[in-house]
Amino acid sequence: MQVFNFSPDQRPVRVAMVNGEPWFVAQDVTEVLGIDRTQTRKLDEDEKGVRKIHTPGGIQEMAIINESGLYNLIFRSNKSEARVFRKWVTSEVLPAIRRTGRYQPQVRYTPESNAELGRTFQNIAYRELMNVESTRVRKRLAGIIDFYVSQIID
């Protein structure tokens, strides 16, 4: 799971990789675009789905949309938020992909303590564990994560 902050007001958009393709958390996209979540119902069946996502409240099933669905929502909406998002995609994201073959946002994170750094690392690592299919491997990796987090925090 990756999180991109949508400029200019840095709203997070969570992205899950599914079979090597990015799928966006529908709730994040609709909030950024300022549109009702029911708009995702208008997407084609192959543009939407459901995935288990780590949230602060635990693992939850959330609606996700693929790139086609994302662009479909962006370009359909006339809301000012959608225009700003559309401008970001067309002026920053797509040109970066054309120039470099990828979009790499700048990450700005300065933890205030080792404990905060450890918790952040642990949250990110556990989210990534959801992509590991083997339960045995997932449990082993969770133990390794917990060990390293304990070294950071203590």
Quick overview of this protein structure:
With 154 residues, the chain is α+β, with helices and mostly antiparallel strands. 48% of the residues lie in helices and 23% in strands.
Give me some keywords for this one:
single chain; 154 residues; alpha+beta; 2 domains; 5-stranded antiparallel β-sheet; 5 helices; 5 strands; 48% helix; globular
The residue-averaged pLDDT reads 83
Radius of gyration: 17 Å
SS elements, strand count: 5
Strand order of the largest sheet: 1-2-3-5-4
Helix fraction? 40-55%
Biggest sheet, open or closed, and with what strands and sense? 5 strands, antiparallel
Low-confidence region ranges: none
Overall shape: it is globular
- The percent range for strand residues is 15-25%
- The computed structural class is alpha+beta
How many H/I helices? 5
For the record, give the distance between the C-alpha atoms at the N and C termini, rounded to a whole number: 27 Å
Number of domains: 2
Element order: H for helix, E for strand: EEEHEEHHHH
